């Protein structure tokens, strides 16, 4: 029998629309068409005829190609893959896909930004969606998470307000893919429950280097239920094997123009190249009897459980190994729903989660035009579907027999699943109370975990947060809103508030709030370096005629062996002539790329005293940008000379010759000839370090 991972692909294959025989063009009715370039008209210059059914069908179909984009998370990219547990989780949950390490469950994952429309740029400052559909043997399970572990509001009834505030302003539809505007910050300044998530939004987590290099979180506290009916609270974490890495803000902004598809292209290219991204699924487990053991409420989605308090226990891994074949059919039409759960996974009374359990089905009905969207190939479970749900728009199944329960005429089918078997049973939580509209007092502390996040950051992360607040609030026209926000920040941390205030022209708040001391080191990017490899890192080598080809080859071979992608860039595409007189292929022309599209740059030398690329302004700009953005810069032989262009940026070039010198990710060796082992090791380490923050006046 095919493994479930294959079963999804087999099912998908059955929906492929290609004609393997490759027959001629037809209408939707299968009538062959001999000419699709001119409409049927009276004479060569006469009016078009109504009778041209092919013309009318073609235009009508085109007119109807669009569906409404998602009201949030409109822009996304997806991929198929599989999940396997490390060992049985039967002690905590009866979910079948978490029992057997030899069973792989197929998945589809969609990553997204939240604020911008479908056509907006990838590298905006925003939360990223991280939604996973597990096609389990017991039905579909959707873990619809984000790359932040906390949300902006506590109760789903506020969601329309929050989304209206962050979306482009209603009068002019500005800004696209950005939160730096008055209405969002007006909302934030009046709604301190947003602050914890806002800290994440101002941090580098909001500008990931790659979807493959970000964490995912279920956010809410969910509930595992085992075969005996025992519940355990659970928080879900995805941890990327490649580590968590971000862009710098200046770079992210430039990238929006240089390659608006930066993140989706990265995902696509990696999978196409067989570099399958991988995440570990971890859980934080809290026994039900410990529900009140914390100084925050487990039901409050603006809080995390610090990992130092409840460690994240790894339970399995997910690998994405297949790009979709059709963006619209699959990535656009995939429909996630928090209420798609399987036996062994249940909800809690988190009011945000409860609202989501209503909203996702509701939104699919309008977005996908009716109730039959679960028949679309990407949404179809691999588990059998039998019920009396019928008809409606876009019904594509041909049902037969009875359509009600109970029945005798249909042999009683489909019958109830037997109690105690594999059917879903809701956790029998006892609930008792008055009907009220009131936020729980246990949800009232908005500052201590916000401060914990700030306290946990490395100095460079704090600096980036301050600069992000200054950027965002600096774009807010209403000074009252700026000042009110800073007053809330003073409740979090006096120093944070003062540093932000200094940059946006509002008075520094006088009274600071409670001095919160708690920190969670697991929150800093410094603790999330992953496997430390440089796999799939993009390394630019700037080349020109006369360059030392041996140097390039020595670096290229080593970096390629480490899994990095090395590209030779020259002023024009085609070939260059190396110092040895041989011709070498250029991968891309410098004017078609930019430093922001690469992780590191190498400057090889030539036999003559001057650095070969120093005369090319594009090359100089490339290196300067890489340096400003904290990226590793390697230079060999006379290639080191180009670095003198960085002295105004604060670079102090070493006066030592013919040895490897490494300072803040700038690795040089003026020796001619192939790169030494020491140089290569040091350069690889610098690339693995991602960014180097101790440089002079770096552009964040
Ligand atoms: Fe969503 N959210 N959300 N959300 N959300 C949607 O569903 C909603 C929330 C998340 O790639 C919508 O199909 C409400 C938290 C992701 O297709 C919609 C509330 C988290 C995606 C919706 C939240 C998320 C969505 C829009 C507050 C992280 C993209 C289109 C009660 C845990 C899924 C759609 C994809 C999409 C509603 C809050 C994550 C309207 C009402 C918290 C990753 O149904």
From TrEMBL:
Transmembrane segments: none annotated. Its EC number is 1.11.1.6. The active site is at residues 73, 146. Residues 1-43 are annotated as: Disordered. Keywords: Heme, Hydrogen peroxide, Iron, Metal-binding, Oxidoreductase, Peroxidase. This is Catalase. It catalyses: 2 H2O2 = O2 + 2 H2O. Residues 1-19 have a biased composition (Basic and acidic residues). One of its GO terms (molecular function) is catalase activity. Decomposes hydrogen peroxide into water and oxygen; serves to protect cells from the toxic effects of hydrogen peroxide. One of its GO terms (cellular component) is cytosol. Belongs to the catalase family. HPII subfamily. InterPro entries: Catalase, Catalase_AS, Catalase_clade2, Catalase_clade2_helical, Catalase_core, Catalase_haem_BS, Catalase_immune_responsive, Catalase_large_C. Its cofactor is heme. The keyword Secreted does not apply. It comes from the Bacteria. SMART domains: Catalase. GO terms for biological process: hydrogen peroxide catabolic process; response to oxidative stress. Residues 26-413 form the Catalase core domain. Heme binds at residues 70, 110, 159, 356, 360, 367. The keyword Ion transport does not apply. There is a cross-link at residues 337-360 (3'-histidyl-3-tyrosine (His-Tyr)).
